[in-house]
Amino acid sequence: MSELASLTTAWYDVNARDLPWRAPEIGAWPVLISEFMLQQTPVVRVLPVWREWVARWPAPADLAAEDSGEAIRAWGRLGYPRRAMRLHACATALVERHGGEVPRRLDQMLALPGVGDYTARAVLAFAYGQRHPVVDTNVRRVAARAVSGLADAGAATTPADLTLVESLLPQNVAAAARASAAFMELGAVLCTARTPRCGDCPLRERCAWRRSGAALPAGPSRKPQRYAGTDRQVRGLLLAVLRQAAGPVPKPALDVVWPDQVQRERALDSLLADGLVVPRGERFSLPGRVPADL
């Protein structure tokens, strides 16, 4: 199995994208920020926001010192804004529990707000060079195809996925961390869901799926998420008004963003329930302190 890792790593050494969170000595906090932002979001959208966050909040204590509303504001249109609140809560926990440093132990990482199995292992592997199976959708697809001969690994990560990917990692710790990054890059760039570039793949001679004929499923492996006209879109429009405002916003200024009153009220109620928006009398704002003169 380690042959797959060595072939993929050799390809990665030559072809890896030049992404700033991969820079040597970048530090664990910028890597953690990138992992929060990259969840369900393309790299091209993350890059400018990540740079702004790292420049503004170079350490967890810098973000923790701000209101969570500032994190939501700086998140911009990156999508899924609850991630901004969770990252702020994570920064606060890092200050309170770990002296403002990102811990090096898996159990401590998993105990942080907003940090799940994937994020915890990704940060430990990519920031600290540890040996962990880092399993996202791309890695699961590479393993399913190269080892199991399946076109798709299914909808959700299972313990079997972690076991399989760990079996592919070299025993050498540094080599394993590099292989984790390489498998992820291969799935993102070549071994894609619908248009895999098998001719360019370093595993083409070892891939069980390619040997079986490399047949793709007849339909999409998962139903594409619709955005236009959904509550998610309305939530985004409401948040955009509040992010741009210097203080609390009156209700009529929110009402104009969407014509369907029922859907608009439902979206606003969900933002209030999530803590992304707070009522200020007859007005609304992002969470946090409001200047006395507003």
Automatic annotation (TrEMBL):
- Gene3D superfamilies in the record: Helix-hairpin-Helix base-excision DNA repair enzymes (C-terminal), Hypothetical protein, domain 2
According to its UniProt record, the EC number is: 3.2.2.31
Q: Where in this chain does the record put each HhH-GPD domain?
A: 37-189
Superkingdom: Bacteria
Alphabetic keyword roster = 4Fe-4S, DNA damage, DNA repair, Glycosidase, Hydrolase, Iron, Iron-sulfur, Metal-binding
Question: One biological process GO term for this chain?
Answer: mismatch repair
- Reactions catalysed, as given in the entry: Hydrolyzes free adenine bases from 7,8-dihydro-8-oxoguanine:adenine mismatched double-stranded DNA, leaving an apurinic site
> What is the name listed in the Swiss-Prot or TrEMBL entry for this protein?
Adenine DNA glycosylase
Q: Which organism is it from?
A: Catellatospora coxensis
